[in-house]
Amino acid sequence: MIMNTTLENNIALWRERIGNASAKWGGAEICAVTKTVDVDTINRARTAGIQTIGENRVQELMSKIDRLDPGYQIHLIGQLQTNKVKTIIGRVAMVQSLDRDALAQELSRRAVQAGTVVPALVQVNIAREPQKAGIAEEELVDFLRRAGDLPGIRIEGLMAIMPLASDPETVRPYFRRMRGWFDRLRDQDLPGVHMNVLSMGMSGDCIVAAEEGATMVRLGRALFGARPTGTDTNQGG
Ligand SMILES: *Cc1c(COP(=O)(O)O)cnc(C)c1O
Q1: For residues 167 and 171, what is the distance between their CA atoms, to the nearest angstrom?
Q2: Using a 6 Å cutoff on CB, does residue 33 contact ligand 1?
Q3: In 73, 149, 168, 181, which residue has its Cα 20 to 30 A from 155's Cα atom?
Q4: Spatial distance between the Cα atoms of 17 and 109, rounded to a whole number of angstroms
Q5: Separation of CA 222 and ligand 1 centre (Å)
Q6: Is the CB of 201 under 6 A from ligand 1?
């Protein structure tokens, strides 16, 4: 639990910074990344104005979910195994990490079974990192056509995780490329594909992301402080 008003101050500070950096685009929302953060602290963030939280592991999310402030929009942001899809259907507001056909099909199948539709962002491997999940740019349109056809998912936009960089300026071209796709795809208006959310930028590079047109940035450490060592992974589970 973060003591005193550090969390509240961090939220106010980063809202202002992100607001300024994204002003010409009409602003960007903060998704508070709450992996390793305890429920009391997460719920304090809600009181301080955070509306959306991101968790990257299904197991950790499910261990907290019943105690989370019911006003939260909960997003799954980590790699999702198909055998865990049934656990999260109807429990999360969005899956940000749709990265393959098998996952799209399973999400759709389970959603239809449950009489619901899952909003999802397609994760793009914009920097072509071999170890990273995500659809390659040249496959994006075909993937969106197939995913947009499925009855149980609704594509709401795109998500990207940038390469680790000590200087965020080095990833600015990737953010710009992502915004380019977002705008082109919005114009293209593929069936079942909407471009309302462009989720990109984390604590280390969120200002550059906001300047380049993110509609949502995902902030963990900037709000909650450093995570315990050994827990810092972008992989889900
Ligand atoms: C952990 C994580 C973040 C937040 O990272 P910070 O550097 O703590 O801001 C954002 N996106 C994903 C997918 C993550 O796993």
Answers
A1: 8
A2: yes
A3: 168
A4: 41
A5: 10
A6: no
